[in-house]
Amino acid sequence: MIDAAQSSSHIKIDVQKLDCDFLAFSGHKMYGPTGVGVLYGKYEVLDSMPPWHGGGEMIKNVTFEKTTYADVPARFEAGTPMIAEVIGLGKAIEWINTVGIENIRKHEEEIRQYALEQLATIPQVKVLGNPKERGALISVTLDGIAVSDAAMILDEENVAVRSGHHCAEPVMDRFGVDATLRLSFGAYTLKRDIDRFIAGIKRVLRLFG
Q1: Could you report the per-residue pLDDT of 4-36, keeping only the tens digit for each?
Q2: pTM of the full structure
Q3: What is the per-residue pLDDT across 72-90, written as a single tens digit (0 to 9) for each?
Q4: Which residues on neighbouring strands pair with residue 181, listed in sequence order?
Q5: Domain residue spans in the chain?
Q6: Starting from the edge strand earliest in sequence, which strands make up the sheet with 125-127, in order?
Q7: What CATH number is given for 2-99 in this structure?
């Protein structure tokens, strides 16, 4: 089972090449609606599984003695589906395919590199990790300043960042920190967004430094 929520909008995914039993991702990570996502499963694995929920359209026949379930995937799609959300997610995926996920990734890499260069000019900012392959995000800490305070000031500057342990406490333990400030990049991120972030960080340092 592969959780592809953090990668589906950034890199090309080939489930046949991965040869995974299951792969899942969420719609809002792909510029689509919230509350909807995709679950891929190998047919033979899904066909061996019972339904998890009862409702309309997921059965073939029902009697008092016996219930026969519908074929895959209908047996897992009980009741009225999230029609509007699925249509919205489909359009979002169409848009990604039109722009080209490789073009999106190249843009994100350029923005990420620009952000790293700008962050390197501020000694009080520490970038966590130096991986050979970095995704479309950067996590940082600030010397002597709580990241929650920094996030609050950045919010006042109309800069959206995340602060906290990001559901990744083992990683926080690995780096010996309680929380980080996270910059996440997407197809819509521009260099001027990074410039605004850097200006916001300098304001944070003036207020708390």
Answers
A1: 999 999 999 999 999 999 999 999 999 999 999
A2: 0.86
A3: 999 999 999 899 999 999 9
A4: 140, 163
A5: 2-99, 101-208
A6: 125-127, 137-142, 180-184, 162-164
A7: 3.40.640.10
**What digits encode the pLDDT tens for the residues 104-122?**
999 999 999 999 999 999 9
167 is catalytic: yes
pLDDT in the model for residue 8: 93
Of residues 167, 170, 176, 192, which has the active-site annotation?
Answer: 167
With contact defined as beta carbons under 8 Å apart, do 75 and 51 qualify?
Answer: yes
Domain 101-208 class, CATH top level: alpha beta
Residue 112: predicted pLDDT: 97
